[in-house]
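Narrative progress, year one. The postdoctoral researcher (J.K.) led the effort to move from monomer predictions toward full complexes, under supervision of the PI. The following entry was the first complex the group processed end to end, covering 339 residues in total.
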Amino acid sequence: MKTTEIDLFDQAIDQLKRNTGFTIEINQFHRQYVDATGFIDTGANRIPIAIDIKKLVINSILPAIAHQFTRMAEHGLVVAHYINPLMAERLKEMGIWFIDTAGNAYINALPIYVYIKGNKPPEAQATKPTNRAFTPIGLKIVYALLCRPELVNAPYREIAQTATAALGTVALVFKDLIQLGYIVDMGGQGRRLKNRQKLLERWLIAYPEQLRPKLETGRYRAPDPNWWRIAPLHNLQAYWGGDVAADKLTHYLKPATITIYVMEEWASKLKVANRLRKDPSGDIEILNTFWDVEGEFNRTDVVHPILIYADLLASGDPRNLEVAQIIYEQELAEHFRED
DNA sequence: TTTCCCAATAGTTGGGAAGT
DNA sequence: ACTTCCCAACTATTGGGAAA
C-alpha cells in the first residue's frame, strides 16, 4: 500500500472513531481484488470486512467495486477520500459500506447501523475562514479599534463590550485581522495594529454597504427646519452624524440631511422631545448607535470623526466630499500617519 | 415578469473547555 | 484566576423555484 493510501486510511478510521467510537483492525493485506481484510470493532461486535481504498469514488467505478467485493467472504468496505451525498446514496443502495476522511460513513450490520452523509470534504473546510472583519459585526469591532487603537491590547471581553458584539465574534474577527496583516500578535508582548490607514479605507468602503443599512430606522421631519441648530442631544444618548456634525466642526456646510445616531432604547424619547414625525421624504435620518456609548468615542454631541467622514462619503453628494477632506485633514490625518 | 416562499447557507451568539 | 478558543444552537440572508 502506498503512503498516500495509508494516510487516507488513517484519517478515515480516525473520523469513524470520532463519530462512532468504532475502530478498524487490519488482519491481512492483499494484492488481489481488495487492499486488505480485517474487522470493524464496535466494542460489542467484531465485524469481518474486506477493505478497498479508493481516492476517488465516481459513478463509473461503482460496478467494479461491487464486483470485487462479490469475490470476498467478508462484507466490503470502501475507504475513500471523500464520498459526496449523491455517491453516499448510491453506495447505500448497492449495499456497499464506506467511510471517508470527511467523516461520512455507511455501515449496516444490524444491530449496528451507521449512515452519515453531507460532511464537507476536508479541503473545503480548510478554506472556510472568510472575511469576518468586514461583516456587519466585524465592522463594529474594526470601528472600535480605529477609534481607540490601544483597545487592540484589551481583553476580548472588553472589546466585545465596547463594540457591542459577542465575545466569540471578537475572536473570529481578530483571527481574520491577524491573517490579513492588520494585527500582529507579538506573543507575550501583546498585539499591535498595523496599516491602520489601509484598514480605515477598507472600513469606509464596507461600512455603507454592510453595516449602515442595518442601522437605519427611517426618515423623519421636524416642525421647524432649523431645529437642529440649537436642539440639545445630550442626555438623550444621541449624537449628530454626517452633515450636521461636519457643520458643527467646520462651519463649511449647510446640512442637507440631518443625521442622528441614537441608542435604540432612547429613540422614542428623542423623537418626542423634538417633535419628530415619521416622514419617508423627511430630511432627518435616525440610525442606531453601534458602539458602547459609555465608551466615550465621542467627545461631545457629535459622533467620532471617522463616522462623520464615512457618512459624508456615503452620502454621495459631491459638495460633501470637499468637507469630508477638511474633516480628514483636521481630525484624522495625524492619527493615521504612522504605525 | 414580479412576488412569495422555503430550504440551504452564512453569520452571530454565549457559555463552557482549554490554555497560560 | 483570568484570557482565549471552540462549538452547538440560534438567527439572518440568500437565491432558486413555484405561484401569481
